[in-house]
Design goal:
40% of the residues lie in helices and 13% in strands. By secondary structure, the protein is of the alpha/beta class. 43% of the residues are buried.
């Protein structure tokens, strides 16, 4: 028995170094991303580090469960050098992977504002992954240096904590005592993984981090990346929600909208431009309240002055794959990306299919290698018949070495291709040059001055590319008969403090531009989101028929709203108010217009959330989850 207990002590010591390293990485994470946490003080950080131990325990037990089992399992050959080397290698490799994913998120968080989940593996299928990895190493070299140091510390500590010397004979006492220690350890390991002792304790999940924070964004400090990846390896299906009866929920919020028009449908072309990483922060015309700030998009600023521009608009996600269903099918990616969820094959009635039924030609353009991020598969579900990617572009010599064909060249190719289409057509393009690693194409590297962030130069290049595209397109016969809709997929790096909140980090421009139509020109402060684009467009086209949209119909919606999901928290905006809802209770209430950094939580002042807002959000959640579960995402699915 003594030998088995000594082994257990050795095991605890070896795992102990990992807890120390994870706390160090938590501090590095906080330090590197300090600009996102201006209100976090020492007491807050200590509370989050204490809570982080709970998630580190679960994550490390997940990673090391096989090692724990094999190390404590009483075997007659356990003292053999080959077996000990195997265990050493297993411990080192599994924990090196955990360290690597944790360190990656120190840098990646700045772009997506959350810990990575299983979605991170979607990038492994990219054809240019090796080039992206090399560039990542160049940009964040000190992270790789830190990785080497941490792995070396694990290596040295493991060897320093020596295995106990074996003196017992291989008899029944040896095997029995070893099995007892193993079974007890496995029991407590399972308890640690689940997060509690009681039978009804549910496995600890990411939402549990909310107990240690003041704001949803702080959950990333409490959590660790191995935990968030492992917890989402098997996509969890939604559970049905029943806040209201079917009749009640339909009265509060009904995503099925019926459009009727007294005039025939306007057969205007539709050109949707989704700009990679295009935040409201980067524009000048939408930030006139900031003295001296000119932004980085002079052309798009000028276009907004001749458009119906929504100045209070928001993305419904933080990644490119979130934007696609939001814009093209009016179905947001909340809680988990729709295209990666168990519901990604549900029947849809997307914009392409709706307009195709009215005689439109449908096409989608993306300058990346065909198949990148699964765009080709999704746009097909959304009803876009033709796909134009790097293969159709044909000249691989123009490949930027990272993501695809630079915006300037690809947008010119698209303009010429559109000129061959029979009208009316609906086409979507997803740009790519304003993506990390933020490298300008050859010939442009000294053209733009940029700003304090790396992304500013490529935003200027994107703006130049858009100017070039519109100049070319304006000479083509289809141009004046086209509605251009310009939006972003999500935000990216932030420099201005006004955008360092969950509200600011989703703020984007949404622009409806119709050449020559001065009646539609205005700066519109109506709350707007990506899922509003489809119903707004169909109203403009005088469409008659039913659609399913989780967004706002501009004709019938008296109280425009925006819904998002951030850090395990539902966020609902209406009027001047932001309401945060987590674990079945309102946790935050802010006047987001006056309190842009969300410092004054009215819940702490005993202010109650407006009953209408809470009912509306609950009805939205019920309709959203239940319809996804039941595959009722078309207007005919009652």
């Amino acid at each position: 028995m003594k030998y088995s207990l000594q082994k257990l002590i050795v095991l605890i010591k070896r795992l102990g170094i990992l807890f120390v390293l994870y706390q160090l990485m938590r501090l590095v994470f906080f330090g590197y991303n300090r600009h996102h946490y201006p209100d976090v003080g020492i007491a807050d950080m200590l509370r989050m580090m204490e809570g982080g131990l709970r998630f580190d325990l679960t994550g490390l037990l997940y990673l090391n469960l096989l090692y724990i089992f094999l190390y404590l399992l009483p075997l007659p050959f356990e003292k053999h050098k080959a077996y000990r080397k195997f265990l050493f290698g297993l411990f080192l490799v599994t924990n090196a992977l955990g360290i690597a994913f944790n360190l990656i998120d120190i840098f990646y968080f700045d772009y997506v504002l959350k810990r990575s989940t299983v979605e991170i593996f979607m990038f492994t299928g990219e054809k240019n992954m090796s080039n992206l990895l090399i560039q990542f190493i160049k940009d964040f070299w000190w992270g790789f240096l830190l990785f080497g140091v941490f792995v070396y510390l694990i290596y040295r500590w493991y060897l320093r904590v020596e295995d106990p010397s074996f003196s017992e004979r291989f008899n029944y006492k040896y095997y029995l005592s070893g099995l007892v220690v193993l079974l007890i350890t496995l029991y407590f390991s399972i308890v640690g993984i689940r997060g509690g002792f009681t039978r009804d304790t549910r496995p600890i999940n990411m939402n549990n981090a909310g107990a240690y924070i003041n704001k949803p964004l702080e959950m990333a400090i409490v959590l660790n990346t191995p935990f968030t990846i492992i917890r989402t390896l098997k996509k969890q299906a939604f559970k049905p929600v029943h806040y209201f009866s079917d009749a009640e929920v339909a009265k509060i919020f009904n995503p099925v909208k019926e459009f009727k028009s007294d005039t025939s449908m306007t057969k205007k072309n539709v050109m949707i431009i989704i700009i990679e990483s295009f935040a409201k922060e980067y524009t000048g015309v939408l930030n006139k309240d900031i003295p001296g700030y000119k932004g980085y998009t002079p052309f798009l600023d000028s276009l907004m002055l001749h458009s119906h521009t929504f100045t209070n608009a928001y993305a419904n996600g933080r990644k490119s794959i979130d934007a696609m269903p939001s814009i093209l099918t009016s179905i947001p990616s909340l809680v988990q990306p729709y295209v990666l969820s168990p519901y990604g094959t549900n029947k849809l009635l997307g914009l392409g299919k709706i307009l195709k039924q009215r005689g439109y030609k449908t096409a989608f353009f993306h300058g990346a290698p065909n198949g990148s991020m699964g765009f080709d598969a999704f746009v097909n579900l959304a009803g876009f018949d033709e796909y134009y990617g790097m293969d159709e572009y044909g000249n691989k010599a123009d490949f930027d070495g990272y993501w695809g064909i630079p915006d300037d060249k690809f947008l010119q190719y698209m303009a010429k291709t559109l000129d061959t289409f029979k009208q009316p057509f609906v086409s979507t393009v997803f740009t790519l040059s304003s993506h990390h690693p933020f490298r300008l194409p050859k010939g442009f590297r000294d053209k733009f001055k940029g700003g304090p962030l790396e992304i500013h130069k490529v935003v200027q290049y994107m703006d130049y590319s858009m100017r070039h595209f519109f100049k070319t397109a304006s000479k083509m016969p289809w141009f004046k008969n086209t509605i251009f809709i310009i939006s972003a997929d999500h935000c990216n790096q932030s420099y201005l403090p006004q955008y360092n909140s969950t509200v600011g980090s989703h703020a984007i421009p949404i622009i409806f531009y119709e050449p020559g139509n001065t009646k539609e020109v205005k700066m519109d402060s109506t709350l707007t989101q990506q899922i509003d684009i489809m119903p707004r467009l169909l109203r403009k086209l005088n469409y008659t028929g039913k659609i399913l949209t989780f967004g706002n119909d501009p004709k019938t919606e008296k109280h425009p709203f925006v819904v998002n999901y951030s850090g395990g928290t539902w966020e609902y905006m209406q009027g001047d108010t932001l309401m945060q809802f987590r674990n079945e209770k309102v946790t935050g209430l802010y006047n987001y217009k006056k309190d842009r950094l969300l410092k004054n939580n009215l819940v702490k002042q005993q202010v109650k959330a407006p009953d209408f807002m809470l009912k509306r959000l609950k009805a939205f959640i019920q309709q959203y989850k239940n319809r996804l579960i039941e595959n009722r995402l078309t207007p005919d699915d009652h």
